[in-house]
Fold:
Amino acid sequence: MIRVAVTGIGRMGGKHASNFVKGAVANAKLVAVCDTDEKVADRFRANYSGVATYTDYDEMLEKEKPDAVVIATPHYSHSELAKKALVRGISVLVEKPITVTVKDANSLIATAKAHPEAIFAIMYNQRSNSIYARAKKIIESGRLGDIQRASFTITDWYRTQYYYNMGGWRASWSGEGGGTLINQCVHQLDILQWLLGMPERIIARCKTEGRNITTENDVIAMFCYKNFDCVFTASTHELPGENRFVIVGSKGTLVITRHKAVCKFLRMDEKQVNARAKRDYGNREDKKYDKEYMFYGIRNYLTDALYGQQCNILRDFVAAVGKKDASLLRARGEEGVNALNIINAINMSAWKGKEVTVPVDPEEYDKMLAEKIKGEKKIK
Ligand SMILES: NC(=O)c1ccc[n+]([C@@H]2O[C@H](COP(=O)([O-])OP(=O)(O)OC[C@H]3O[C@@H](n4cnc5c(N)ncnc54)[C@H](O)[C@@H]3O)[C@@H](O)[C@H]2O)c1
Structure:
């Protein structure tokens, strides 16, 4: 039985803790939780009397000596809390984002590498959506041919002013290290890089629309790859919004929406169609394709409704810790730096008003972020 602790038992950590208590994660026992907010800790203690409850993280690690800890605190604290566990040989599942800046993420990854006895994982729960996993296999198999163009529109993470007013750390440079990109879109940016790899350059524009916040809630960016470009559009203020990932290859097209994908596989590569064409618009035979559908599935809807998609990652993590085998993870902790590199580059491009290379200079990013935080304090 893996002895697990959860730190930060707010909205997300509270759900993780309750999943462990409910027995939704096989071979795991929740032995302790920690939250620096005494009221939150007291509320948890009142509801779950069998779980040791702390307000001091170091004390919890020292006294309980858990095998593994799940970190679900605000973003800036992720790195320090994860390192404190890793150096004690305790496995870590860190909530997304890995942390706020690439410099800090690299330092955390170095600590994890120095402690291979501990499993290091990140909560990228959208990787458990089988549609993305199958799309990745399709791309890797070459069935789409050469990627020619992509676009990801993610505008259905709707957030109201009420949401922003709820938590002091949300949507601020000082509290969360960004807005829509680092909080919500980190999921899609991870999926994007998981399927297509890392872009070489980024040009972006970020805005704040219709909300009293200091960070972005509206983004348009172009990701430049060696042989194609991808347009990324995100917003958290429009309704109804959509979630649409389109990948166009020379042999087919994938259109992935929220819980469904349509794949069109050409019978002939477009390059061949063009080379053979004896007329201006191609002909009907050349345009033929086979259509395949992928669905999220009723079972996934039901388990998500019961436990949340994040529970899949809790299960993988516990299995990986139990077998001491990081290959059982859907996302290793160090992979968290990829989406963060993209986010830091989008921000930097928007701040500078010009194209930037990926990865951006971590030192320069930290300096620019510090300026943003200083500017924000002047407003407050
Ligand atoms: N994977 C997902 O789908 C998903 C969804 C929502 C939130 N999250 C992530 O979960 C994390 C927490 O978000 P949330 O919405 O639950 O926030 P929240 O504000 O509801 O909860 C955070 C809790 O952490 C506590 N805390 C702060 N600093 C602490 C520290 N140093 N040690 C222990 N406790 C501390 C706070 O008192 C609070 O109770 C963030 O990283 C967020 O991005 C992930």
